[in-house]
Amino acid sequence: MGIETAIGSPAITTQLDKVVNWARKYSLWPMPFGTACCAIEYMSVVSSHYDLARFGAEVVRFSPRQSDLMLVMGTINTKMVPILKRIYNQMCEPKWVIAVGACACSGGLYNNYSVVQGIDQYIPVDVYVPGCPPTPEGIIHGVLKLWEKIEKESVKDWK
Amino acid sequence: MSDIEQSLREKFAEDVMAVSDFRGDLAITVRRERIADVGAFLLSPEGGAFAMMLDICGVDYLGREPRFEVVYHLMSLETKERVRIKAQVSEGDPTVPTVTHLWKAANWFEREVYDLFGITFSGHPDLRRILTHDEFVGHALRKDYPLDGRQELSRPTPFAEE
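ok -> structure tokens follow
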């Protein structure tokens, strides 16, 4: 981070981390990678009843270049993996990934020739939300868990 | 004996190999070389006008000879009748004549059977894999294909023809 080398004081960096992380966690821009029923639950999460806007993450972008949080919601098969990797690589840093549901976390109930047994074999995952599908509360809980992770990050660690 | 069975027996006496009528589901096994001729007859008005190709599926009876079976599910929009036509296919020569010139819907169904069972359809205009990816080796729904035989794909499959 350029500002730290310019100022040279760790005390200021600590406070800078707090400010930046505070801003980042309250303005997550999700990119839904929805391939199955978990994405239907997510529709409920962002609409009025559960209202993800209360947590500052309601601006859903369908372009990875405008997003910093990818939610992988559904079964990923081997034919989909290069697409998943390409979309992940298109997101600018800092970026986070939430694996929503049993399929994205572990392959779910599909143990066969075509289904990936957990997307963490191919892209890094920050938060795993279990369930088949998870409840909307579960997905919101996943976002709150991601907040805890963002709070511990430092601007120095991002490239 | 149903009307369909009777007319098929009259027209293709030599080629009707077996008939089963399980709880009203009529299934007629014919010689695979004649499948396109039987299809053309069933599509014609005197054959029952089976204009709707519902599905084509493959079956792997591992250990039996002939090993494979291709099942054509047809429906007549005029009489609302349904019929299944089966063709038995050996492992040594897994080839069936195409019916794409009769029903356009058969195009992707035949590609699916080719992809998952390795049965080729002679005369098919574009016999490529349709479900598994281009780099896939083998045929996934064969009984001797390993259950966890996952094969990685190195690049995204193009969405459109290039």
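The CA atoms of residues 22 and 151 of chain A lie 7 Å apart.
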